[in-house]
Specification:
- By secondary structure, the chain is an alpha+beta fold.
- The chain is globular and about 80 Å long.
- The protein has 13 helices and 44 strands.
- It has a nine-stranded antiparallel β-sheet, with no helix packed on it.
- It binds zinc ion.
- The site of zinc ion has 9 residues, from loops.
Length: 726
């Protein structure tokens, strides 16, 4: 690991002579798409597609299916304990599979930085006999995700009871999950539902953890080894493929996530058709689009992300000296957030409008002052909202809008009569206009990048966004009345959201700034292009008188730890809660490697505690779930910063009163194991952190006891301490 420009980079050995001549060119940012290296090994039958961050292998002797996914800086040698199989159950109940195809036809080509692999073969009976059904799979390897198109080809009259384009078993460590339900308005879902994840845990040996089973194929499912790594799948934008294609009726599928004993793991199957007794005739061709994605992990700890916001503030723009104070406090990024009429003066940034203010020079001054002191800047865009006052809304709002089955638009009001904008769907001309609108702002102002609100795909029933009425890329799409609009079958706009994220990274460049907000709908595929994520604005239980135990925090508190997350305190802590909960919020954020957002005074107070680490990105981080440190008190928790030869242990007490705990270190379980730790010291608490004078000296701890029966340590109430072991 090296550090450059305050960002974490992975250095790879550049083999090309040209790259050797320019060492700077060998540094790769996690967010910047790179080419794959592809190797086809004829003797082992493995086709491997590799980047510095992950490898995916297809087994050409077993149907050409994906048999291994591994993250360079993850934990599991393979996130799959069974390959990703296609299964069909015929009308006699026999299971056909592509795994038994011994010699599929496989092609491979490069398209820009992406790799396209096609696999064609026959579904086979368990005894190896070929069936009449062929399957053609096209895998588009993009940055951090694979877009998969599965096409089943059948002669006339083939009847089947079950079609399952995705069946696999995952490592049991991916035991935290979330899925976005596949129900629509017709199935009783609220027409403009946000589609938040349904969260749960599925741990082997925990009988209280329930199997997930639903007749409606979910739109997405994310599975996480919390704080460590993960894997997700989601369906493409055309939901009719999954909901209606095979039977014309919704709810005929079966998606199951259940514990599997042989092999041990989490068995996942996603079947748009599943019946125990009723068979349907397969069409001659049916297509299913879905994705697999994983977090791009750099394997290094994140610096606390210190962020704040500004707005026009009645024309009283942030003065230069205030921005200087931001820099002194350690603020790294800011963004302009002004999507509503906060001051009742009518001057705010109406989504999609430009220019938003009469005094854009004041806006530019703030941005320039930030740049002057090394603070990076972004401005707010809603990926889903367009203000009705804009010409674009008046001309295209009906055509671009996210609609229910009735054809209504949804306007987002923040108080009666005052709105942010109407909801748009990216699967329309809105996508191209949004890009135009973002580009217009980035071109005209000294910004480092963007802040995306509503960075999520949503169900939409605007029939203009389906089939022939849909615009080609670069076009703004059909107008109302220009297409004979049959009722919509239902779609969401995930293909287009990914397009927007890739475009955005390309637009702001490798050093540009991309911040996304995705409360309740985090996704690896989109976050891989972002520098920072904002989370937990709503959707979880409010903190009123007590901070929750660490294990009760939402999964999105740090997800897989791939990138710095800001957890929103104003969305989490009840406004009447005691102030000390803000201190605990900061402590719990730090124990997860996250940061309160925007940075609170309690955050600034806690940051100096980590100062002894120096370059934080030179460490690996393990959150409160680490197995290296054991504390005897349930209201105390630890996190670990580890690098070769040394570790820092962050020990926190979430109770108001001091706690004496027994602390045991298992040095072999540190991210960088310490074979023979020689010294352990409790570091003085900085005055800025405790609000009390500096303790004078570091206190030596008995390292043998620390790694043996444990040392007794008193941790002050609502506070944390740091122990250095080497
Ligand atoms: Zn739509």
């Amino acid at each position: 690991m090296t550090r450059a420009s305050g960002l974490c980079f992975v250095t790879v050995l550049a083999l090309a002579a040209g790259a050797l001549a320019d060492p700077g060119a060998a540094r790769i940012s996690r967010t910047w798409p790179q080419a794959y290296s592809v190797e086809r090994n004829e003797s082992s039958g493995i086709l491997s597609l590799r980047t510095p961050f992950y490898v995916v292998e297809q087994d050409l002797n077993r149907g050409g299916v994906i048999a291994r996914i591994a993250l360079t800086h993850g934990k599991a040698a393979n996130l799959l304990v069974r390959p990703v199989e296609t299964r069909v159950r015929d009308d006699g109940g026999a299971v056909l599979t592509d795994l038994l195809e011994p010699a599929p036809t496989v092609t491979h080509r490069r398209e820009g930085l992406n790799e396209i692999v096609t696999v064609e073969g026959t579904l086979r009976h368990q005894d190896g006999r070929a069936s009449a059904i062929r399957v053609k799979t096209t895998l588009q390897y993009r940055w951090g995700y694979i877009k998969i198109r599965k096409e089943l080809l059948a002669p006339p009259g083939v009847r089947v009871r079950e079609v399952c384009p995705l069946s696999t078993t995952l490592v049991p460590s991916l035991s935290d999950y979330g899925y976005r339900e596949g129900r629509t308005e017709e199935d009783g879902a609220s027409p403009f539902a946000f589609g938040s994840n349904v969260w749960g845990k599925l741990r082997l040996g925990q009988p209280s953890d329930k199997t997930v089973q639903t007749r409606h194929v979910p739109r997405s499912m994310i599975l996480v080894d919390a704080g460590v790594e993960g894997l997700e799948w989601f369906v493409g934008s055309d939901l009719a493929q999954w909901d209606l294609q095979l039977t014309g009726r919704r709810g005929q599928g079966q998606c199951v996530l259940q514990a599997s004993q042989d092999p041990p793991g989490l068995a996942l199957s996603v079947a748009p058709l599943s019946s125990t007794d009723e068979a349907v005739v397969l069409p001659s061709s049916c297509v299913f689009d879905f994705y697999l994605a994983f977090p791009i992990l750099e394997g290094c700890a994140h610096r606390p992300w210190l962020h704040t916001t500004f707005n026009r503030n009645r024309g009283a723009w942030v003065p230069t000296d205030e921005i200087g104070r931001w820099a002194e406090k350690g603020i790294q990024t800011v963004h302009c957030h002004n999507d509503g009429d906060y001051y009742g003066d009518g001057l705010f940034w109406r989504d999609g409008s430009y220019p938003p203010y009469p005094d854009m020079d004041g806006y530019d001054k703030v941005l320039k002052d930030c740049r002057q002191v090394g603070i990076r800047t972004a401005t707010y865009f809603s990926n889903k909202e367009l203000h009705p006052s804009t010409k674009e809304f008046q001309e295209h709002g009906e055509a671009w809008g996210r609609k229910n089955r009735n054809g209504d638009l949804r306007h987002n009001f923040y108080r009666p009569g005052a709105e942010y904008g109407a909801q748009m769907c990216l699967r329309s001309g809105w996508l191209e206009f949004l890009k135009f609108s973002i580009d217009r702002v980035l071109k005209n102002h000294p910004l480092d990048g963007v802040y995306y609100d509503w960075n999520t795909a949503l169900l939409c029933c605007n029939p203009l966004h389906e089939t022939a009425a849909r615009p080609a890329p670069g076009e703004r799409g059909a107008e109302p009345g220009s297409a004979a609009a049959a009722p919509a079958k239902g779609h969401w706009d995930i293909d287009e959201l990914l397009d927007l994220m890739e475009w955005t990274r390309h637009r702001v460049g490798p050093d540009g700034l991309v911040i996304v907000h995705n409360t309740t709908t985090p996704m690896f595929a989109t976050e891989n292009f972002a520098d920072y994520v904002v989370a937990t604005e709503w959707g979880y239980r409010k903190w009123t008188d007590r901070a929750p135990d660490m294990q009760d925090l939402p999964l999105e508190w740090n997800l897989a730890g791939a990138l710095p997350r800001g957890v929103i305190s104003y969305g989490t802590i009840d406004k009447n809660a005691p102030r000390r909960l803000h201190r605990l919020f900061a402590l719990e954020a730090f124990l997860g490697g996250s940061t309160p957002w925007p940075a609170s005074e309690e955050t600034f107070a806690l940051v100096p505690l980590l100062k002894p680490l120096g370059d934080i990105e030179s460490y690996r981080f393990a959150d409160w779930r680490n197995q290296a440190v054991a504390l005897s008190d349930a209201r105390c928790a630890s996190a670990v910063y580890s690098r070769a030869g040394e570790s820092y242990l962050l020990l926190a007490n979430l109770d108001q009163t001091p706690r004496e705990v027994t602390c045991v270190l298992h040095p072999e379980k540190l991210p960088h194991p310490l074979p023979q730790p020689a010294t352990a010291r409790r570091l003085p608490t900085p005055a800025a952190s405790s609000g009390k004078p500096d303790q004078q000296d570091a206190a030596a701890l008995d390292v043998r006891q620390l790694i043996g029966q444990g040392v007794k340590i008193t941790i002050p109430g609502d506070d944390a301490i740091l122990i250095h072991v080497r």
